[in-house]
Amino acid sequence: MGGDGVDRAEELRSLLGGLDRVVVAFSGGIDSSLLLHAATEALGAGRVMAVTTESPAVPPHEIDQARRLADLIGVTHRVIPSGELSRDEYVANDGDRCYHCRIEMYTLIGAIARSGFEGTVIDGSNADDEGDYRPGMRAAAELGVRSPFRELRITKGEIRSMARAAGLPNWNKPAQPCLASRIPAGSPVTEAKLVQIDRAEQAIRALGIDVVRVRHHGDVGRVEVGIEQLSRVVATPLREKLVEALKSAGFRFVAIDLDGYRSGSVNPVTARRSERPDHGQNQAFSEQT
């Protein structure tokens, strides 16, 4: 296949064109955005619907961006409330939180797909996800959700290349997984923690740090940034502003992780693919945590 992703894009459109109607599980991230765009090209806007689930684990600005992107692509878009916080297994956060979240999400989206629209539910999981800790993919399989990128072995790099060629404005957007991914396994997920994390991360991004995770360890907020940003955040005056941001969000103590951002750093230890992944450019695009 060509390195520019053109042939892969045609494969994707061909697969999607074989479906009658589709309902895209749409987060507004790069994967689901490209999938929605390709489905619209293959089937026409009238046979495509985007559905976004809204919960305290999703920052409000991400929902707003999903709305703008769906409007840009030109498809019907529904935003529906998700009730994963009412699921005891999700709140317990015992290592399979993502599974219970996705069961909730795909059940809700599946109900919409069956209520008059009669479409196949599809998601943006890609080939790279298969080597990572992704309990949510088990939920997708159990509920009959199709993953065209995985079926075609399309990688994250190819998705970005195709999205750029298609003119999608978020083609180079860093990953923004749900806020619950900042809470260590075994520590319960609560709405108060999610609000606190979101407030802290938004304040840090306002300081010009795009890739950031604030890991919630009770009174301690552990800050991970891209390794190339470490020298900035430990130096005055940015360090003082970062400390102020976290304390204003409700943390008593602030820790800056000298290992830098690591996808999955609060996952169960046995599930981590690597404790120290490459600190190159692509680490900002991890979809996990």
What does this protein look like?
- The chain has 11 helices and 7 strands.
- It is of the alpha/beta class and 289 residues long.
- The chain folds into 2 domains: 6-165, HUPs (Rossmann fold), CATH 3.40.50; 179-285, no CATH class.
SSE layout:
Layout: H1 6-17, E1 22-25, H2 30-43, E2 48-54, H3 60-73, E3 76-81, H4 88-92, H5 97-117, E4 120-122, H6 135-142, H7 148-151, H8 156-165, H9 191-205, E5 212-217, E6 220-225, H10 230-233, H11 238-248, E7 253-256
Parallel strand pairs: 1-2, 1-4, 2-3, 6-7
Antiparallel strand pairs: 5-6
Helix pairs in contact: 1-2, 2-3, 2-8, 5-6, 9-11
CATH topology label of the largest domain: Rossmann fold
Report the CATH architecture of the largest domain. 3-Layer(aba) Sandwich
Based on helices, strands and strand pairing, what is the structural class? alpha/beta
Helix content: 40-55%
- Let me know the number of strands: 7
Order of helices and strands: HEHEHEHHEHHHHEEHHE
* Global mean pLDDT: 89
Q: Provide the gyration radius in Å.
A: 19 Å
Fraction of residues in β-strands: 5-15%
Assign an overall shape: globular
The CATH superfamily of the largest domain is HUPs
Q: Regarding CATH, which class of the largest domain?
A: Alpha Beta
Biggest sheet: strands, sense, closure? 4 strands, parallel
What is the domain total for the residues?
A: 2
